[in-house]
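Pasting two entries for a bug report.
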Amino acid sequence: MTRTNIIGKQFDEERALYHLQNADIIDCIFDGPADGESALKESRDVGLENCRFSLRYPLWHVKGFTVKKSTMDDKTRAAVWYAENGSITDSILGGIKAVRECAHIRLERCHIESQEFGWKSRDVTLIDTDIVSEYLLMGSRDVKLLGVKMKGKYSFQYIENLEIDDCELDTKDAFWHSKNVTVRGSIIKGEYLGWFSENLTLINCTIIGTQPLCYCKNLKLVNCIMEETDLSFEYSDVEADVKGHILSVKNPKSGRIIADSVGEIIRGDAVMECTGEVILREEIKYV
């Protein structure tokens, strides 16, 4: 099938390229006085390269797309919704709610600043990408992050089937109500991390911040470091091997926590039976 090439054009009308198929769009601008929305709605098999967007809802209901070396500014609200089978590389996404209810989306070497990014989506991969998002990937599933640097607040809430490798997460209430999350070789800085999670596994990670990992089911820490972590593990079912010091541990529900040292072990005033053990590593040596 012959592909159409659209080069060096400007579009600003409503649905300017509606249902475009088998086309490459190069060096084009989506902006102008007509202020039209939904430029590429319902398109199929389209490639965009070195394009600039400054209009709302450009890629809704699109199936099969690539975006390369392109920019979507803060006026490009809700840029990619209900889309499938797409990749975005070496690009800037600056509009609120940039990706939502999408499937099979890959973003690589991008810079993203988008509140409420990636909600209720499936099979999303972010690689070597910087992202600022207050609510990141809420309610999504089958997600992978590799080499990502993120800054946000309420990230990964209600997410299922998440893998994170070699990332830096500067967040707050991350992983609340999450299921089946594995984080490897990453730095996680925040407050109240992981509450109400199920099957959260942290391997070779550094965990920083107050009151982490409470009310968890099947929580596992393998060879992790915990910094500034007070009131940790309250009411959690946990198996943890921590290198170094934990400021304090409070009422772990079950399992055991092994650490080099613990500043304070708090027991009492619990609302449920708490049988979790806290063991210093030197005690194991002498058993």
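Entry 2 (this is the one that rendered wrong in the viewer):
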Amino acid sequence: MQITQHTVDNFMKSCNLCPRKCGINRTGGETGFCGQTAELYAARAALHYWEEPCISGAYGQDCPGSGTVFFTGCNLRCVFCQNFAIATGTWGKPISSGRLEEIFLELQAKGAANINLVTGTHYIPQIALTLQNAKSHGLTIPVVYNSSGYEEVSSLQLLEGLVDIYLPDLKYCSADLSTRYSHAPNYFEKACAALEEMYRQVCPVIFDEASGLMLRGMLVRHLLLPGQGGDSKKVLRYLHDTYGNNIYISIMNQYTPLPHAKEYAEIDRRITTKEYEKIIAFAEKIGIENAFIQEDGTADESFIPAFHGEGL
């Protein structure tokens, strides 16, 4: 589908881009759940070295880094979000579509392994238009769409042919958990439909044999929550039953309790080694082969970059 500014404006006039379906006029300055008008806002654009090795590159001196753009606002806003400051719109700088295109090309010139679009759900039409233009002006590296998974299939279809790698979360199976922590009782239903569309667009997985970098495909992330091993097993079983080993799964132990989530006492702690080992053993037992796992102590590291407008 060819995207024009007219297309973008039409989507923004009655915004139903995500499952929230707020229906508000963002071109008129109204804001829905994501907290954003039609104007693009971002908080950081820089090489990022803390994604999975197939996205950022193998850790070490020659790691190219992922050319990551963190967009302001979020349509999910989980209570435990590590990027809380930008998810809630606290940090951000307005940028034009033209400037965003320049940023993509600048990151490519710096040697980025890919362009990594973080939490861009509420800006999909603007992103699609910008990617069209950037590709016609020399953008050749893969494009990664890095998402919570809470997406509308019709919106994702705007990205077909423009995105090479989908990097969604599948956070929960339980509607009780998705309601409590993400205010989204229909999360699993919507995320599953979104993953099916992502899979249709970009799979099977293709790697660059020399570098080990993913060139095309889908990598699904699942972050373990304290005390929720049962739900994690349901998520992993669903992924394996649905996609087998045709996708990659990142099983993450880096959950970090943050001050703004203190009222949720049941998740105000880190994942234990035993909890994580049980989930990894389960993944092996059911036949998951293409998985990234994290070393013990990962939660001691900080994966939260400084959101001060770098690269914008």
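Dev reply: Rendering is fixed now. As a check, the viewer should reflect this: The mean pLDDT is 94.
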